[in-house]
Structure formats: C-alpha cells, structure tokens
Amino acid sequence: xxxxxxxxxxxxxxxxxxxxxxxxxxxxxxxxxxxxxxxxxxxxxxxxxxxxxxxxxxxxxxxxxxxxxxxxxxxxxxxxxxxxxxxxxxxxxxxxxxxxxxxxxxxxxxxxxxxxxxxxxxxxxxxxxxxxxxxxxxxxxxxxxxxxxxxxxxxxxxxxxxxxxxxxxxxxxxxxxxxxxxxx
Length: 184
Description:
By secondary structure, the chain is of the alpha+beta class. The chain has helices at residues 12-25, 49-65, 80-100, 120-139, 142-152, 159-164, 167-183, and strands spanning 2-10, 29-35, 40-48, 69-75. Helix 1 runs antiparallel to helix 2 (49-65). The longest helix has 21 residues, at 80-100. It is elongated, with a radius of gyration of 33 Å.
C-alpha cells in the first residue's frame, strides 16, 4: 500500500531539516517540497505505510525542536484519483524542467573593419582638451557638480533631475552643455 505523508512548517530551513530527518529515518521518497506563501512550506513523502509514519514522526520531531512545525498528516492508503493527482503535479514539473534545460547554441561571426585616419594628429589634439575637462569634472564631488549644473542653468535637465542625478550623468550633461555653448 502506498501512503502519503505531509509536514507543514514555517520557513525553508525547517522544511529542509524536516525533510532530511524524514528521508534518513525510513525508506521513503520525497515527492514534493512546495513553498506555499507567507513562509509556509509543505513536504510530501511517499512509501509504505509504516515507513511513511516513521518518517513523518522523525520529521515532525525535528520541526518541533526548531519551533517551526505547523502540522503533519499521514494518509495511509491513497485513493487512485489522489495518487493520479499527485502524479500529474510531478509530471508537470518534469515537463517544465525539461524545457528549461535545453541548451541554446548561437553562432558568433566576427567582423573586422579597418578605418584609416588621414589626420591622426589633429584628431588627438581635438580630443585632449575634452578629456582633460572630463577628468577635471570626474575629480569633483557630486555636490560641487550639482552646484555647477545649477549655475550653468542646464537646458537638458530640470532642477529636480539635477537634484537626483548621479556623477556620470552630471559630467556628461555638463560636457554636452559646454560643447553646445562652444559651437554657438
């Protein structure tokens, strides 16, 4: 005869401990460990009637010691319909696991492009002042960057956005505003 034993505990730690004790105490199989909600977890073991009773007693004792036991129950002889319901639940979980475990293989094609720069010296000299200015702004504290942003009266950020902006956003916005004012 197949029996079903259930232990309901508060917390995942108690569930693991109770399941471990139940599985070590008798020749039973763990059917399911279901996290319900609000910290409640139910452990279900199946096997022979005497083995399930012994396993549930051992798991209940451990859960009592951890002060997390809600309830425990043993159904001595499962009806065929109840047994079928338990099998459906397990088979649905197996299908989900099988779908998740399929590996995805992607091919990556490397494309190399070479761009020739005719005037490399001019490009470097133009970038250098902006890099210096960026480094100077990055050295500043966020509070000072916000003060500078308020003084510059930035058009891209509102005062509320300036108030909650991080350092990189402030630096990028200030540099963009400076470039815009230089081009005009």
